Amino acid sequence: MGSVRKKSVHPKTRCGVDCAVVYAGANTTHIPIATGTTLLAPSGYPIARAGQVYDAPPMLSFAFRPKLFDSLKGYNRDKLTRDVAAGLTVGVVALPLAMAFAIASGLKPEAGLFTAIIAGFLISLLGGSQVQIGGPAGAFIVIVYGIVERYGVPNLIIATAMSGVILFLMGLFRLGVLVRFIPVAVVIGFTNGIAVLIALSQVKDFFGLQLAQVPADLIDMTIALWGAASSTNPMAVLVASLSLALILVWERARIGWAARGGWPARLAVLPGTIVALVLAAVAVFAFKLPVETIQSRFGGIPASLPAFALPAFDWSTVRFLLIPAVTLALLGSIESLLCARVADTLTRDRHDPNQELMAQGVANFISPFMGGMPATGTIARTVTNIKSGAVTPVSGLVHAATLLTIVLVAAPLAGTIPLACLSAILMYVAWNMGQWKEFAHLRNYRMPYRVTLLAVFTLTVVLDLTVAVEVGLVVACITFIYRISSLSRCEQLEADQHDELARAGDGVQAFRLYGALFFGAVKLVEDIAVRLPRQAVVLDMKNLIYIDSSGVDALLDLSRRCDDAKVRLIVCGLAHQPQQMALRSGWMAMIHPEDRYPDLATALASVDPVPQAG
User: Fold this and answer.
1) Radius of gyration of the chain (CA)
2) Are residues 200 and 262 in the same domain?
3) What is the pLDDT at residue 395?
4) For all residues of the chain together, what is the average pLDDT?
5) What is the average pLDDT across 16-43?
6) Which residue range(s) make up the domain with 501?
7) Residue 32 domain-assigned?
8) Averaged over 185-205, what is the pLDDT?
């Protein structure tokens, strides 16, 4: 329903209970609410109180209000100091990750840097979260690599821009809350699958294999890597192994250093990835180690931002990019909103999912035309931002400015960075990215959860992320439908438990419906229709919470069968959504006013006893 605006006091309404009355144009909705309570929107915000009348805004009203605007109210020097410190820290953290993600995606390292600068700036400037950091993410590596391999870089730019349009439209039409409906088993499954693929994609640089191109497909990738195993570079293995070991030891030690204070606490600010990157680059330059570097493979990094440019593309190919664009948009929305929820947990704040999606859309539409790649919210950098003291989106703007300064000033120095070290960083990222303990905990869950998680994980690794998510959602939907249908039930009331039913005689049957009457549970009503009593059927619907069109069709068929058999159909306890559905569908009009009652007792009392035969 969205937010509503208070208009006047209206303590009681025709529905006989305390209500919030919402006017939307010519339509009026009476929402029963217990006295003293508040109606919450799906986002958790209060939108209506009992006894009030509200004007509802149009469903498609355009609302574009970045969090930055609200954050600047009361902004002071203390907040600025904290934001600048956090932005500088997270900018340094993002440096190696941005280059590593781009290289692993089949792009030049500057693509990751430009994305972190441009998209990161736009996401912080326009986003719906106070402290989220945007930029290239590990989750995109597999998808981007596949698009580049199949369609080329120009079409990756078009697919990324298309995904930006999709993301913006998702936010515009307030679909941000729908991302929360994706089952956690699906999210864990594809996240762990992507982590495995990231690790496999780094085997080439970790071992220094002489391999021109690593296929995106798992089977072909495995065959290619195995075939190139004889070309292993021992020095690359040494650099990668020492880098990975240093990162692991440093990150574990940072926890203790931060608690000790003094110079250890200052050292704890530096992430292990940047320490390993600097030391590996110095070692390669000082000792002239025979390993591949950014300079030897890519020719270095330009010390400037690229100009806005449209790629050359073929319209006949663009139509094939819709599925990759939808995949990028879906994954980007999931990652960004999951990241925002993590940030909310740590900061006790609440993000605006629709504003966040619109900001992601703008960033993904603009950055690819300036040398970037797909971007989204990044959990690791966002958590670093929060722990470094960030309080507003200004920290994200400082993070982008920090990276821009590094590119403009120190780009030539990046040429000595060994690719083996970047592969070790991505191995570490892949390990932290996966939720591996969930596999050990699978025995604690029901079989449908296990099947969904394992199916999505396997399909992500073996086939394709898009197929994996599609199959996972289908399996989850089928499981959900089965569970809800099993929770919905129809209980036939016994005469020995209800005096009114006993008085009415055996020509009357009473049934109480529970749960949801939807397409997966219509058999409950169909079973009543095939065994009608002689005199009357009483339906107690007070425990029915939902009816869909299939449920209405089943009720309409029951009414027709009762009319044909000259059997009264008495309805009681109908309220809320089921009542609204009954009115809109015309089923309520088929029920005679004398056959509608508020509760079971009055409904049974209205039935005249039939003399027993014999």
Assistant:
1) 31
2) yes
3) 95
4) 84
5) 44
6) 489-605
7) yes
8) 89
